[in-house]
Amino acid sequence: MIAGKVVLKKGKEHSIQRFHPWIFSGAIQTKEGNLEDGSLTEVLDFKNNTLGFGHYQNGSIAVRMLSFEKKSPDVKLWQHKLTTAIQLRQSAGLPSKTTKAFRLIHGEGDGLPGLIIDYYDGAAVMQAHSVGMHLYRQEIANALKETMGDDLKVIYYKSQSTVPGKLRDAELDEYLHGMGVVPHVIPENGNKFYVDWEEGQKTGFFLDQRENRKLLGDYAVGKKVLNTFCYTGGFSVYALNAGAKLVHSVDASAKAVALTEKNIELNGFNAEIHKCFAVDTFDFLKGKDGEYDVIILDPPAFAKHRDARHQAVRGYQRLNAEAMRVIKPGGIIFTFSCSQVVDRQLFYDTIVSAAIQAGRSIKVLHHLTQPADHPVSIFHPEGEYLKGLVLYVE
Ligand code: SAH
């Protein structure tokens, strides 16, 4: 049901006509009707022409666009967006014989701002980042069931830590369809992983590193590999299955280290070839000069907001300089940043500063990003968040 209208200031219609999905509060001339957080609103230009419809929310981003059509959306909207998203994944070869887990809805990239759905071989984990998506969760779940049919056994709604403020006071996480048994095993490029969407970070697994983990395999054959910020041990498992000589995994969280150990065992490896350390990466790197041929640096977002950007850049610089300093001559570093506010150029410049600080000769072998199941709308470049470089350190 359409709860009200938002009329934009003159000139503020242009970005919406170019399909940018956000309307900032400063672009709004007037509001009409009963607009509350999460209500569906019509959006009009200053001449009262309909530009589309979206979810209203008090805050800097006041409307998240769901449709750029004149006709008001109905329940079919969800099914239409889900079908389009599934087609996109199929065209990218997902799922495949060896990979049965992928991101099914990537917010703005799939025309559904505020919504994430990860698919883990029969189970969908839904996460709302806006009040609107939270309010429509059951409708979305119903559309998901209809679209995916019997392939979908479970829908788990996990938004306790992602929905805005006040909503978090209530218990939110629940099964909207079926009952899952966790941990659940997924195949990814033939590697096996346990996913625990109830207890794990985010939706339970970081699907965005799939292609980068595969590339790491090519560099890990016969090598001594250090995987820092390992979480579930994704890079570690790929390195071992590819034929690494030895892999060490590091994470500050004891829970993450336990998860990594379980995944290593699941893939048939033991403590002879793999060791886990529950310590801070910065501490671990001290005194490790010349021990590793390959080092992976995949830290959590050091900056979640613009104000924290400077501090984050210093963190990336210090971390990378230290890894560049200790790695064996001829070694390879896979380095990443998932901070949205640190863009590709800034990340690159930060790595250059780290190289200067480390004083070693370094070459860039690959520029990495997020995979096709984390699409970026061409009109919403903010959607690109994962940046990576593969470096050769002489
Ligand atoms: N590389 C992982 C995802 C990393 S998520 C993958 O492919 O799935 C980031 C991880 O960094 C989290 O598990 C968190 O516990 C860990 N972490 C955060 N700060 C850390 C620190 N200073 N040292 C080591 N680990 C840290």
UniProtKB/TrEMBL annotation:
- Record keyword ATP-binding present: no
Sorted alphabetically, the keyword list is:
Cytoplasm, Methyltransferase, S-adenosyl-L-methionine, Transferase
The cross-references to InterPro entries, in alphabetical order and at most eight, read: PUA-like_sf, PUA_sf, RlmI-like_PUA, SAM-dep_methyl-trfase, SAM-dependent_MTases_sf
Q: What is this protein called?
A: Class I SAM-dependent rRNA methyltransferase
Q: Which GO terms describe its molecular function?
A: methyltransferase activity; RNA binding
Similarity-based family: Belongs to the methyltransferase superfamily. RlmI family.
Which PROSITE patterns does the UniProt entry name for this protein? PUA
The main location is: cytoplasm
What is one cellular component GO term in this UniProt entry?
cytoplasm
- Signal peptide start-end: none
Which part of the chain is the S-adenosylmethionine-dependent methyltransferase domain?
168-375
**UniProt-annotated location(s):** Cytoplasm
- List, in alphabetical order, the GO biological process terms annotated in this UniProt record: methylation
Q: Does the keyword Cytoplasm apply?
A: yes
Q: RlmI-like PUA domain spans which residues? A: 6-68
Gene3D superfamilies membership: PUA domain, RNA methyltransferase domain (HRMD) like, Vaccinia Virus protein VP39
